[in-house]
Amino acid sequence: MAEHNETPNAANAGATQDEGQPSFNLQRTYVKDLSVEMPNAPQIFLEQEAPKVGVDLNISAERIADTIFEATVTATVTTRINDKVLYIVEGTQAGIFELANIPQEQIDPLLGIVCPTMLYPYLRATIADAINRTSLPALHLTEVNFQQMYEQRLAEQGEGNADAQQPTMQ
């Protein structure tokens, strides 16, 4: 009797994926690129003024297999005192995601909103650690609304091309 009960459960577990059920999984996250530059050290350490910080953030995604995508979030932190660069830290956090049986119109929002949202905490920690290793005061990146960034990108693409279709991440 136990074999009879296990067989349908095992069959149902296999059938779930075969029946085309949507599947979204983060398979791996990794630091794809990390760079720290302090071009004006050690002279810059003698400056007494407070530094000004600028942060640029970019996201991208590309298909690497039929249902496998790589999504990346890149942050470039540039800190200056007057006109001199104190440090530049650039990091790219990447993730391998499986998107199986996802409707085509949902793939771009997943890659443009959900994937970066999942990767960003890893990137924040990596950037904070890199800055900490410069012996300078810690800097923690603020939270980011990736949905707002995605919607802004859509609006900009719509303005640039009036008859544009739904954009896709590259």
UniProtKB/TrEMBL annotation:
As for family, the record states: Belongs to the SecB family.
Q: Where in the cell is it found?
A: Cytoplasm
Any one GO biological process: protein folding
Quaternary structure per UniProt?
Answer: Homotetramer, a dimer of dimers. One homotetramer interacts with 1 SecA dimer.
Q: Which molecular function terms from Gene Ontology are attached? A: unfolded protein binding
Question: What is the name listed in the Swiss-Prot or TrEMBL entry for this protein?
Answer: Protein-export protein SecB
Q: Name one Pfam family in it.
A: SecB
Q: Where is this region: Disordered?
A: 1-22
Gene designation per UniProt: secB
Instruction: Supply the source organism's classification.
Output: Bacteria, Pseudomonadati, Pseudomonadota, Betaproteobacteria, Burkholderiales
Q: Which UniProt keywords apply?
A: Chaperone, Cytoplasm, Protein transport, Translocation, Transport
InterPro entries in the record: SecB, SecB-like_sf
Organism encoding this protein? Candidatus Paenalcaligenes intestinipullorum
Q: Please verify whether the record's keywords include Nuclease.
A: no
Q: What does this protein do?
A: One of the proteins required for the normal export of preproteins out of the cell cytoplasm. It is a molecular chaperone that binds to a subset of precursor proteins, maintaining them in a translocation-competent state. It also specifically binds to its receptor SecA.
One Gene Ontology CC term in the entry: cytoplasm
Ranges of Polar residues composition bias in the record:
7-22
Key word Nucleotide-binding present: no
